[in-house]
Amino acid sequence: MKLDEILTHLGEERALYFNAIAPPIIQTSNFAFETIDEMRAAFADELSHHIYTRGNNPTVEILRKKIAALELAEDALVVGSGASAIAAAVLANIMAGDHIICVQKPYSWTYKLLTQFLTKYNVEHTFVDGTSIQHIIDARKSNTKVLLLESPNSLTFELQDLAACAAFAIQHDIITIIDNSHASPLFQQPIKYGIDIVVHSATKYLNGHSDVVAGVICASKPMINKIFNGELMTLGLTISPHDANLIIRGLRTFPLRVQRSDETARKVAEFLYNHPRVEKIYFPLHHSFAQYELAKRQMSGCGGLITIKLKAETKEEVYRFVAAINCFLMAVSWGGYESLMIPSLVFHDMPGGMPDSPIHWTTVRLYIGLEESAFLVEDLSNALDQM
């Protein structure tokens, strides 16, 4: 199915709602039935019917169809956050005593899920350098049930060979789950390589307007039914119809926004690569990236995330760089219209005895929004000069 058809028409039964171009927000908690037989049929397959908005809502259903098609999946679920999408996908595929392999330096709440939550239920984990499939193979145990991937990885964007990971997992009956928030389905479709479950923080590129928190899970119909009837319904991982409608609105401009961020990021990355106060840049589709060839093979674009390592001898220099920035808001997340930055220095010397981040304090992650490249380069140039 063509991208334009997915974003503009898929799932939108306009004849059912007065031929309105934009679908209505079905803002209801409950749905009524005419007969006992109708209600029985709905309870037999709640994901295909409308009983109670905690399960399936018509507005959310339109969004599910679009996102599943974007990821080449049979079906999808939309939940309250990216963290809940990851947690639901993992919990649905493990039991007490199982083992999970996960790439190093995952998203912070994925890390906490493995190290603080699941350890209470005797679920083991091993963090591995996923840049080599051999490291993943060597980490397998007889009780390994899940391989948890992020490609590109958080902050420094390490990749995993998705086809090799899928082949290994299939051989050993392991479920593969990938967080595809960085590349988005516009630039990478992991199911095409054999990955079982794709999750996203829909807060980011899929919504794109910095006004909704949501997550998605894409997989086969049996897997989606399993997660729906288990974790989603039991834990109440619901998204509101209003938020689903906002994400549908965001999807209308999805390729325009993400392509713009990608194109601008390439220009900004090249400027930063050549600047004397930048020691290193991390951008998978820049020729200096260690896994550049794999990135070109798996990803058709990169999006707006760039991490830089500043050439600084003192933390005061980093403070001066941050203070001089005007066009990048200091904030978490990415994927909206606005450019953002988050210095690793935030997570160093924190009060309360918290351990310092393993990411060096000279590291700054940038997100390139929808502004002109010249506008952002001028701001970065000025800030680097003031270090």
How does this structure look, described?
It is a single chain. This protein is of the alpha/beta class and 387 residues long. It has two domains: 3-251, Aspartate Aminotransferase, domain 2 (3-Layer(aba) Sandwich), CATH 3.40.640; 254-385, Aspartate Aminotransferase, domain 1 (Alpha-Beta Complex), CATH 3.90.1150.10. Helices cover 37% and strands 15% of the residues. It contains 14 helices and twelve strands. The protein has helices spanning 3-8, 36-44, 58-70, 82-91, 108-117, 133-139, 162-171, 184-187, 221-235, 241-251, 254-273, 292-298, 315-324, 373-385, and strands at 75-79, 99-103, 124-128, 144-150, 175-179, 197-201, 215-219, 278-282, 305-310, 329-330, 340-343, 363-367. The strands form two sheets. The protein has a seven-stranded mixed sheet, sandwiched between helices. It has a five-stranded mixed sheet with strand order 8-9-12-11-10, covered by helices on one side.
Compact summary:
With 387 residues, the protein is an alpha/beta fold.
Strand content: 15-25%
The major beta sheet can be summarized as:
7 strands, mixed
Radius of gyration: 22 Å
**CATH A-level architecture of the largest domain:** 3-Layer(aba) Sandwich
At CATH level 3, the topology of the largest domain is Aspartate Aminotransferase, domain 2
Q: Tell me the number of helical segments per DSSP (H or I, 4 or more residues long).
A: 14
What's the domain count?
Answer: 2
CATH superfamily of the largest domain: Type I PLP-dependent aspartate aminotransferase-like (Major domain)
Number of strands: 12
Q: Mind telling me the CATH class of the largest domain? A: Alpha Beta
Could you list the spans in which at least 5 consecutive residues all have pLDDT below 50? none
Per the principal axes of the C-alpha atoms, what is the gross shape?
A: globular
Helix percent band: 25-40%
